[in-house]
Amino acid sequence: AQKVTQAQTEISVVEKEDVTLDCVYETRDTTYYLFWYKQPPSGELVFLIRRNSFDEQNEISGRYSWNFQKSTSSFNFTITASQVVDSAVYFCALSEAESGGGADGLTFGKGTHLIIQP
Amino acid sequence: KAGVTQTPRYLIKTRGQQVTLSCSPISGHRSVSWYQQTPGQGLQFLFEYFSETQRNKGNFPGRFSGRQFSNSRSEMNVSTLELGDSALYLCASSLRHSWDYGYTFGSGTRLTVV
């Protein structure tokens, strides 16, 4: 069965520090998708990134970067020069794709509550 | 472009009652998924609808049901409410039934069962 582990329940850093959120996943499929979502206090899940299992390239988007390593089944998320507005709960998620690209539900990790102190 | 709209935003129900939650997807999106979020269990997949057909279902009892209309709007229903059904219910929509197209979430309906 698929599983996503976010071992860090809560992280607190001071503004401008870099912070890395860890995500480890388990799946028996060779084709799968990995996601990161941000959940601010308002409740909606804001999509950050999607990666399929065949694309191991790291990605950078502004202050955000993601490191995907199949060898360690990890998909870590780094925020550089953190800001107070980055405070939120961050979720890593996994979907095992049916052959042909069909979608099943997402399996989420428990989330990491990130607190950026001014 | 309007996002995913969920109504109502907040709901208080009594144990034993039933409840219906509504989700209007992004215009043109045909796939709608539902998730339950609780402090204890986290985010869990309920079901997904595509073109009015249920495509997948998570591990929830039969008290949880849903449907999708021809305009892609979706409703989920919970019958015989239990205290443990108190949760944030999130709806997500996608253009097609495929993770290649990504899913956009709504702000959720917070259900409290007393």
How would you portray this structure in words?
The complex is a heterodimer of chains A (118) and B (114). With 118 residues, chain A is mainly beta. Chain A has no helices and 12 strands. Chain A has strands at residues 3-5, 10-14, 19-21, 24-26, 32-39, 46-52, 59-61, 64-69, 74-79, 88-96, 107-108, 112-117. In chain A, the strands form 3 sheets. In chain A, strands 2, 5, 6, 10, 11 and 12 form a 6-stranded mixed sheet that branches. A 4-stranded antiparallel sheet of chain A has the order 3-9-8-7, with no helix packed on it. The model of chain A has no long low-confidence stretch (mean pLDDT 91). Chain B has 114 residues and is mainly β. Chain B has strands at residues 5-7, 10-13, 19-24, 31-38, 42-50, 53-57, 64-68, 74-78, 87-94, 104-105, 109-113. In chain B, strands 2, 4, 5, 6, 9, 10 and 11 form a 7-stranded mixed sheet that branches. Chain A binds chain B through residues 33, 37, 42-47, 50, 52, 91, 93, 95, 97, 101-111, and chain B through 31, 33, 35, 42-48, 55-56, 58, 88, 90, 92, 94, 97-100, 102-108, 110.
